[in-house]
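Much of what follows relies on a compact textual record of a protein's fold. Each token is a code from a learned vocabulary of local backbone shapes. The record below shows the convention in full.
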Amino acid sequence: QVQLVESGGGLVQPGGSLRLSCAASGTMFRTAAMSWYRQAPGKQRGMVATITSGGSTNYSDSVKGRFTISRDNAKNTVYLQMNSLKPEDTAVYYCNLRPRPYYGRDYWGQGTQVTVSS
């Protein structure tokens, strides 16, 4: 079984930075693809950034150039460094683990709130 625990959310002013962390239990992390998703009130959850076990990354157009996803396999942890934050980045951010090989189940964290406001 896998548990994902996010941390690092909070209130930040526009233009500021935050770093989210997601710690995973179990043995799936090293081979899994890890992603960050976000969901704003009244909107669907959408992918923000993904990193494969080999370190390849992918970003949504809305965060490209501002956010950086990384992983530390020794710590079973994935990070999301968020710079130049905008009010439209306000959302609950969720960590996602997709096992490899994929057997149809994703694992999710409980979410961490990020609020960008002056």
User: Anything to note?
Assistant: The first strand starts at residue 4 and ends at 7.
